[in-house]
Amino acid sequence: MSEPPAVSVDGLVMRYADKVAVDELSLTVERHTITAVLGPNGAGKTTTLETCEGYRKPHRGTVRVLGLDPVADRRDLHPRIGVMLQGGGAWSGVRAMEMLRHVAKLHAHPLDVDMLAERVGLGDCGRTPYRRLSGGQQQRLGLALALVGRPEVVFVDEPTAGMDPQARRTTWALLQELRGDGVTVVLTTHYMEEAERLADQIHIIDHGRLVASGSPLDLTRGGSVTTIRLVVTRPFPPGSPASLRTALGEAIEVVQLDELSLLVTGPADASTLAKVSRWCEDNGVLPESLTLGQRNLEDVFLELTGRELAP
Ligand SMILES: Nc1ncnc2c1ncn2[C@@H]1O[C@H](COP(=O)(O)OP(=O)(O)OP(=O)(O)O)[C@@H](O)[C@H]1O
């Protein structure tokens, strides 16, 4: 029999009082991958992760991690997973290395804590109390705490939030190294670049629902699709997206980003650019800029939800 996937979520519904935070969500995370759950603030990413980690019980649907029920099989599952919580999850007065040593002792075969501290870049702040660590250092400690028990699956919630660009790159390299060692990494992020660079598989969620899944390449369709961004000097006349779409033809999508900009997506080329320019002239619209580019995940998200991904 083949081994179960790292994570399988099937028809998950999660509610806070009357609010539906996760709405019939189904997704699979294959082993030995980096999988990103991507979505804007409030999309339901943390709630989904916390359910996989066994901190919340599904209101409906099922969740399995390494084939186990995170709540009912908690004792068997917990030694096999690592969890990096949003906001660190350490006591405020404890020193970074004390905390790491303490957690290491709870595991049967922990990693060497000094090596791990060095690797995540905790280096010279090991004696600093948790509350005095910078946001980025708290994140690094959180990551070390998640990894010290040699987990098979590691859940990391917004691993690079609050990190400077260099620390972010170090963290990306570390997560890639983990995948190389056979660990499955499940991360949430609202950084499109993070998902695009790191993930083998991306699940985009919005309002608790899955809106798209695939590899970064699948989702951006191999770069054969281009975008045109049109920014204008005065608000568009009413009905502009529909009128522009009619002018450009069937295969082209037009999304209004805000009152002064539109995004055109599809098999666009120089002739499409010329048509957009002509449409502007015919409709008394004065372009401030008109740029042709490759479609990226941010554009995919915009098309799917009509909203920007970045907070
Ligand atoms: N404890 C709670 N009580 C009530 N509502 C909650 C609670 N936790 C989350 N929510 C709501 O559920 C929805 C999903 O929240 P969740 O934190 O899962 O989203 P998220 O995608 O992780 O967002 P973020 O990127 O901001 O962390 C949001 O509308 C949020 O306000």
From TrEMBL:
Keywords from the named record: Antibiotic resistance, ATP-binding, Cell membrane, Membrane, Nucleotide-binding, Translocase, Transport
InterPro entries: AAA+_ATPase, ABC_transporter-like_ATP-bd, ABC_transporter-like_CS, ABC_transporter_ATP-binding, P-loop_NTPase
GO MF annotations, alphabetized: ATP binding; ATP hydrolysis activity
GO terms under cellular component: plasma membrane
Biological process terms in GO annotation: response to antibiotic
Subcellular location: Cell membrane
Keyword NADP listed: no
Domain ABC transporter: 7-232
One Pfam family it belongs to: ABC_tran
Topology of this chain in the membrane: Peripheral membrane protein
Lyase recorded as keyword: no
Protein name (database record): ABC-2 type transport system ATP-binding protein
